From TrEMBL:
GO cellular component, one term: mitochondrion
Name of this chain's protein: NAD-dependent protein deacylase
Source species taxonomy: Eukaryota, Fungi, Dikarya, Basidiomycota, Agaricomycotina
Catalytic activity: N(6)-succinyl-L-lysyl-[protein] + NAD(+) + H2O = 2''-O-succinyl-ADP-D-ribose + nicotinamide + L-lysyl-[protein]; N(6)-malonyl-L-lysyl-[protein] + NAD(+) + H2O = 2''-O-malonyl-ADP-D-ribose + nicotinamide + L-lysyl-[protein]; N(6)-glutaryl-L-lysyl-[protein] + NAD(+) + H2O = 2''-O-glutaryl-ADP-D-ribose + nicotinamide + L-lysyl-[protein]
Residues engaged in binding substrate: 69, 72
Residue ranges of domain Deacetylase sirtuin-type in the record: 1-286
Active site: 144
Cofactor note: Binds 1 zinc ion per subunit.
Organism: Tetrapyrgos nigripes
Annotated family: Belongs to the sirtuin family. Class I subfamily. Belongs to the sirtuin family. Class III subfamily.
GO molecular function annotations of the record: histone deacetylase activity, NAD-dependent; NAD+ binding; protein-malonyllysine demalonylase activity; protein-succinyllysine desuccinylase activity; zinc ion binding
Database matches in InterPro entries: DHS-like_NAD/FAD-binding_dom, NAD-dep_sirtuin_deacylases, Sirtuin, Sirtuin_cat_small_dom_sf, Sirtuin_class_III, Ssirtuin_cat_dom
Function, in words: NAD-dependent lysine demalonylase, desuccinylase and deglutarylase that specifically removes malonyl, succinyl and glutaryl groups on target proteins. Has weak NAD-dependent protein deacetylase activity; however this activity may not be physiologically relevant in vivo.
Cofactor requirement: Zn(2+)
E.C. number(s) listed in UniProt: 2.3.1.-
Length: 286
């Protein structure tokens, strides 16, 4: 049987669900102006952007990798929250969620590093009640880290900073055009450094070949989830790509919210195609 696109049927399932998770990917922030760098057109300047997100790339060309992440930091600094961020943040608050799914829990597991989901939650909590703020369960888990974290390569000190630029030598490099433009080679001592020990720092994100954060906590949450919302992700990067399947295997329901068809859609119980900022807002409206 093909997945349903009936919102009323989905909301009936939502109403009886007790442990709800959302697994979010780059599509969640697409309407905010954050480039995805995945699939066709996944180039930054003339480089395969995905190949720059590795420890190996940083070890061999730290100047180039920092220019790439400086570009991404600047993009995230300029980005605006979209309705999908707001809808998921509001659903995180018990006072709102319990009107739709009584006595339920909810955790957003995001692969995004742009910090927009956390910012949306921060804004939602500004006007929240005590019942919304006095909750022990994590509301959001940024499993691939944060673009605004800077991590020391020597002492592992991590510092959050939205400084723009992150260091003087990177200023303006986000505007370089790839057509016959040589990439500037920035000296190591001019790249971001650790504020604690002075050693070379790196972007505080989880790269390919590195272990995602919070895996033990996430596994516990996925094990008991009875509804998984897949939001704006092609479900190709593991372990996040397997979470919906795990929920389905132990009897839970899966609802996919994506702009286009992706891997595993036929196994979902619900499939809502279209911009996430529209489909999620409708599905989770009070």
């Amino acid at each position: 049987m093909p997945p349903s696109n009936n919102v009323d049927e989905f909301r009936n399932v939502l109403k009886t669900s007790k442990h709800i998770i959302a697994v979010a990917g780059a599509g969640l922030s697409a309407a905010s102006g954050i480039p995805t760098f995945r699939g066709a057109g996944g180039l930054w300047r003339r480089y395969d952007a995905m190949s720059l997100a590795t420890p190996r790339a940083f070890n061999s060309r730290p100047s180039l990798v920092w220019q790439f992440y400086h570009y991404r930091r600047e993009s995230a600094n300029k980005a605006h929250l979209n309705q999908a961020h707001h809808s998921l943040a509001s659903f995180s608050l018990p006072s709102i969620r319990h009107q739709i799914a009584p006595d339920s829990t909810f955790t957003l597991i995001t692969q995004n590093v742009d910090g927009l989901s956390a910012l949306a939650l921060e804004k939602a909590l500004e006007s929240a009640s005590d019942a919304d703020t006095n909750v022990d369960q994590p509301k959001i888990l940024e499993m691939h880290g944060r673009i605004f974290d800077v991590k020391c390569t020597e002492c592992d000190h991590v510092e959050f900073t939205r400084a723009s630029p992150i260091c003087p030598a990177l200023e303006g490099t986000e505007n370089l055009i790839e057509n016959n433009t040589m990439d500037p080679e920035i000296a190591l001592d001019e790249l971001p450094c650790c504020s604690k020990c002075g050693a070379l720092a790196r972007p505080g994100v989880v790269w390919f070949e590195e272990m995602p954060k919070y895996l033990d906590v996430i596994n516990q949450i996925v094990d008991r989830a009875d509804l998984c919302l897949v939001v704006g992700t092609s479900s190709t990067v593991y372990p996040a790509a397997g979470y919906a399947e795990e929920v389905a295997e132990h009897g839970g329901k899966v609802a996919v919210f994506n702009l286009d068809r992706s891997s595993g859609d036929d196994e979902a119980d619900f499939l809502f195609l279209g911009p996430c900022e529209e489909t999620i807002a409708t599905a989770l409206s009070v």
